Backbone:
């Protein structure tokens, strides 16, 4: 059985969304940050960083969303949702995936840390304008890379698209403007996928059940 440890509106959506795309059965274990569950000894034994998502499969635990979705796609959909290893197409896929994690997401996480995530005494409000500038710069690069293609690699949806779309939505939730028409159209296409809706429902249900 596949177990996902997550919380709604976090990077865990990347994992649940992919699992829905793959049509795999999985258990969703809510880690409620408001109740301190992310810092419990039980969860820290799963992910020492105290963050979601984490994945448990075949008696093994994997954390870091990029590693999880790459593993799942390689295991269950190689050549479909992710290009085969050792190909130029895979290198391009990884190029954009790493771009998301290191360039597009990084300034958003900087904002999050200095607004609410780290202790108040370590927050530096002066970094927020710089982070916003960095995000806009990354959007410009992404917009040029996407061009008029339907998906980042061309004609086929991939894990890289999932990573991009979730991060763009995160940017909007942080009230960061996305002014490139091709990125807005792209995000709407990605979020209209049925697997995305199913993932949202699964996470919302888990939160409602915990009360």
Residues:
């Amino acid at each position: 059985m596949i177990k996902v440890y997550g919380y709604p509106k976090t990077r865990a959506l990347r994992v649940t969304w992919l699992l829905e795309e793959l049509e795999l059965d999985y258990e969703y274990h809510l880690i409620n940050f408001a109740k301190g569950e992310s810092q419990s000894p039980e969860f820290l034994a799963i992910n020492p960083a105290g963050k979601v998502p984490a994945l448990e499969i075949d008696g093994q635990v994997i954390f870091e969303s990029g590693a999880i979705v790459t593993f799942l796609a390689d295991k269950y959909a190689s050549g479909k949702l992710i290009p085969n290893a050792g190909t130029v197409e895979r290198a391009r896929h990884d190029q954009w995936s790493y771009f998301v994690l290191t360039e597009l997401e990084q300034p958003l996480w900087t904002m999050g840390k200095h607004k609410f995530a780290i202790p108040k005494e370590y927050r530096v409000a002066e970094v927020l304008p710089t982070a916003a500038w960095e995000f806009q710069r990354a959007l410009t690069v992404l917009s040029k890379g996407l061009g008029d293609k339907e998906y980042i690699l061309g004609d086929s949806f991939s894990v890289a698209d999932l990573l991009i779309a979730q991060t763009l939505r995160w940017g909007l939730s942080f009230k960061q403007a996305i002014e490139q028409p091709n990125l807005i159209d792209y995000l709407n296409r990605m979020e209209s996928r049925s697997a995305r809706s199913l993932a949202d429902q699964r996470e919302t249900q888990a939160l409602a059940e915990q009360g």
The beta strands are 2-6, 26-30, 54-57, 60-63. The two ends are 25 Å apart (CA to CA). Residues 128-146 form the longest helix (19 residues).
